[in-house]
Amino acid sequence: MRSRSQVGIVGAGPAGLLLSHLLAQRGIDSVLIEIRSREYCEARQRAGVLEDGSVRLLREAGLAARLDQQGIEHGGIYLQFGGERRHLDFRDLTGRTVTVYAQTEVVKDIISRRIADAGPGAIQFSATDTEVADLDTDRPVLRYTSEDGVRYEVTCDAIAGCDGFHGICRPAMPAGTLTTVERDYPYAWLGILADVPPSTDELIYAHHPRGFALHSLRTPAISRLYLQVSPDEDIASWPDERIWAELSERFALPGWTLRQGPVLDKGITPMRSFVSSPMRYGRLFLAGDSAHIVPPTGAKGLNLALADVAHLAPALDGLLRGRPALADAYSATCLERVWRSTHFSWWMTTMLHQTPGADAMETQLQLSQLRYITTSRAAATSLAENYTGLPFPT
């Protein structure tokens, strides 16, 4: 079946969903397809820290009703090292905050809004055999097979590849078009979601001789915690009791106790830095994880995806109205932020994790850097500025 849409969007993660919503607010129609089911998209556990600009963007888009009710505003973080836990006050340092609100909930919010605004067909879930074609023309084509087996061919004015690192859009760009830079880290995160109230009021980033640990949270009743492990670690070798024992050791401080409870979900996430450029070929535009990946230490992945879309929506609006300046600048504009966030995420990661085979010199350099951040207002402000986020487009 052949059809027509101004914009084809591949991928119903935060980037694709938000883009479809922002385009609709501008009177631009789009078709949004996703290979997974709605149930899968609304259940997968991902990031949970929103920058100040991300919160403002969602509010301005009319998508923050639940975020404002359930999100937990944080004015700083704790850095723990050398047997001490020190607080960085973001409000004092930058006047900005971050908000803990899971990516899962952001996805639920936008899916509900898109379906409420445009009906059940607003998002084509469980699509298969997706491909993009005719990328050297001003009428690129999006093809897919719907859940009920109908083959669609959609002629578009532009296509947005929001389909993640393993998606089909980036590989569809002609050979030699892209430059990719990447780094795999010699450690991973074992993460758990636990049915227990958090043991902290704000996130704890812990440097420890046995490896990094992070205490985050999802709600006042649900905790999210992480341990540094080897990338080839077998999750089966980590029963709940072992996880809690290791977390307790890495977070241990006199007079402080880590609350424990039932583990609702657990998994191992490898860590990678990846940047692909340019983020545009003709009328195919990349956004989010399809173009870049950062290690989760700096809480940048979700926020970068939202920032990309904050640029892409007005860029596509201008392109379709014969004003291509923003579209022509899209890749360079986004990549400036991407590289700043990539550096910050790398810096946080290498400062806090134990590198296999590292000598005592590396450990002492890490500790020196952590002491400097927690005793120098200038250093603390730099971390706070990057963590709470660069300004979003207005």
Structure summary:
With 394 residues, the chain is α+β, with helices and mostly antiparallel strands.
Q: What descriptors fit this protein?
A:
D-Amino Acid Oxidase, Chain A, domain 2, 8-stranded mixed beta sheet, 19 strands, FAD/NAD(P)-binding domain, globular, 2 domains, 394 residues, alpha+beta
Structure report:
With 394 residues, the chain is of the alpha+beta class. The protein folds into two domains: 2-73 and 99-182 and 272-349, FAD/NAD(P)-binding domain; 185-270 and 358-388, 2-Layer Sandwich (D-Amino Acid Oxidase, Chain A, domain 2), CATH 3.30.9. The protein is 37% helix and 29% strand. The protein is built from twelve helices and 19 strands. The strands form three sheets. Strands 1, 2, 8, 9, 10, 11, 17 and 18 form an eight-stranded mixed sheet that branches. It has an eight-stranded mixed sheet with strand order 6-5-13-14-15-12-16-19. Strands 3-7-4 form a three-stranded antiparallel sheet. Strand 17 (280-281) and strand 18 (284-286) form a beta hairpin. The chain starts with a strand and ends in a 6-residue tail after the last helix. The model has no long low-confidence stretch (mean pLDDT 96).
Query: What characterizes the major β-sheet?
Result: 8 strands, mixed
Q: State the helicity in percent bands.
A: 25-40%
Q: How many DSSP-defined strands?
A: 19
CATH topology category name of the largest domain: FAD/NAD(P)-binding domain
Number of domains: 2
Name given to the CATH homologous superfamily of the largest domain: FAD/NAD(P)-binding domain
Please give the radius of gyration in angstroms: 21 Å
**Multimerization state:** single chain
Mean pLDDT: 96
Low-confidence residue ranges: none
Count of helix runs: 12
Give the CATH level 1 class of the largest domain: Alpha Beta
Please tell me the CATH architecture of the largest domain by its name.
Answer: 3-Layer(bba) Sandwich
The proportion of residues in beta strands is 25-35%
Terminal CA distance:
39 Å
Q: Which descriptor suits the 3D outline?
A: globular
